[in-house]
Amino acid sequence: MILLNLLVFGFLVTSILGLTASWVDRKVTARVQYRVGPPFYQPLVDIIKLLGKETLVPTGSYRSVFLGAPLLGLAGAVTAASVLWMNQIHPQTGFTGDWIVVIYLLTIPSMSIIIGGFASRNPLASLGASREMKLVLSYELPFILAMLVPVVHSGLSIRLGDILLAQREAGAFAGNLSGILAMLVGLLCIQAKLALVPFDAPEAETEIVHGPLIEYSGTGLAMYKLTKNMMLFILPFFLIQMFLGGFSLAGWGILWSVLKFVGVLALITVIRNTNPRVRIDQAMRFFWGPMTVIAAVSLILALLGL
Amino acid sequence: MSLKLKALLKSPWVFHLSTGSCNNCDIETLDCLTPRFDVERFGILLAGSIKHADVLLVSGSCNRMSAEKLKTLYEQVPKPCLVVGIGTCTGSRGIFIDSYNCPVPLDKIIPVDAYIPGCPPKPEAIIAGVVKLIEKVGKG
């Protein structure tokens, strides 16, 4: 049962939806720039092509870690996705503390990028990995503070199922003042978690040519791309579960769920297309300064019951 | 045709290398990525790292300094890969044919799959060349 959940919902459904999300992102980007954009099957073709290419291991790299790191990231994304899907389908079956587990699992793809970057013995990859590490340090604090707001609203329960059920009764938490503030912080943290512009300093293409991924080719790169595409679905999904009442998979609810997801995704894409890249110190100041203050204020408002 | 090759032709990521060109061919190549021509329609993206590339776009007359680098880079492209020479310089060394610094043409250094002539070739010519190359490889 658990294996089925991991394979079908964690991997298959999430990767299909993730690849679709990646196409939506690329197509919207193209339309913003008055271009036509890639066809629907493009993200899938990219992955298949990379799987068929030669895998090169640079001389002097730590071979087993270099080749194992992408697998670690993919495993983290698949596990996080299956916990989220399980809570979505049967909200009662979750265990106490899966909120904490999901927050941990969502950092594993970033960790795998750091490990892979440092293992590849490339100066630009090391630079990118150290930037990624600083970015993780800076966005985790406001992200966890913001994600505590739904916990407070659902009566201090750290079960994802309770948070979903509480929203089914009382309406989405984004309807409250504290909820909308925390969701704003969460959205910007997701932007950094996905390493999209304006927080794409770790893999700045024009500056340090994809940073940690610079030495990857073939299967390793395919796995990183797939993990990134899956995260493009998982993180908005987590945000929707926390603040917008999750998906509903019956009748007209499906349409409403798709609308929620595409709305969050379009917001991420528009932020990515209308902003320049910030330096890593600016990103850190932004997250530790205004974002942490807003997240703390929304937490206090939530504790006051607003 | 195998699935591997089919997928490669549907998403060729391009690495752009100048071996001592006068920069005109490079500007025309970058024009292909602008909204007016938009090669992302065909899945073509500009790769920053040579390890991500499927197509090596070479421009310039392959002078003595860059010929060695060109060889190193060709060895680093994950196979299967394609090589395209852009501009008259890569085809026949153009006006530099008598120069002391351009000893051999491009295909004496690495195998070349297609040449796109012109000084510089228009973006339309580059796209037409890439489409012809894809058709050629697709037929076998």
Share of residues in helices of chain A: over 70%
Distance between the termini of chain B: 7 Å
Q: Give the largest interface.
A: A-B, 31 and 20 residues
Mean pLDDT of chain A: 88
Number of strands of chain B: 5
Tell me the number of structural domains of chain B.
Answer: 1
Q: In the residues of chain A, how many domains can be counted?
A: 1
By oligomeric state, this entry counts as heterodimer
Q: What is the succession of H and E elements of chain B? A: HEHEEHEHEH
Uncertain residue segments of chain B? none
Q: Structural class given helices, strands, pairing of chain A?
A: mainly alpha
Q: Tally the helices of chain A: what do you get?
A: 11
Instruction: Please write the string of helix (H) and strand (E) elements of chain A.
Output: HHHHHHHHHHH
Strand line-up of the largest beta sheet of chain B: 2-1-3-4-5
Spell out the blueprint of helices and strands:
The complex is a heterodimer of chains A (306) and B (140).
Chain A: H1 2-32, H2 42-51, H3 63-89, H4 98-119, H5 123-153, H6 160-170, H7 177-193, H8 205-208, H9 219-243, H10 253-273, H11 280-304
Chain B: H1 3-10, E1 13-18, H2 24-31, E2 45-46, E3 55-59, H3 64-76, E4 82-86, H4 88-92, E5 114-116, H5 123-139
Parallel strand pairs in B: 1-2, 1-3, 3-4, 4-5
Please tell me about this protein's structure.
The complex is a heterodimer of chains A (306) and B (140). The model of chain A has no long low-confidence stretch (mean pLDDT 88). Chain A has one domain (2-304). Helix content of chain A is 73%, strand content 0%. By secondary structure, chain A is an all-alpha fold. Chain B is an alpha/beta fold. Chain B has one domain (3-139): Rossmann fold. In chain B, 36% of the residues lie in helices and 15% in strands. Chain B is built from 5 helices and 5 strands. Chain B has helices at 3-10, 24-31, 64-76, 88-92, 123-139; strands at residues 13-18, 45-46, 55-59, 82-86, 114-116. Chain B has a 5-stranded parallel sheet with strand order 2-1-3-4-5. The longest helix of chain B has 17 residues, at 123-139. The radius of gyration of chain B is 14 Å and the shape is globular. The A-B interface holds A 26, 30, 33-39, 41-42, 45-46, 48-49, 52-56, 205-206, 209-210, 213-218, 221 and B 3-4, 7-8, 10-11, 35, 38, 40-41, 43, 48-49, 51-52, 54, 76, 78-80.
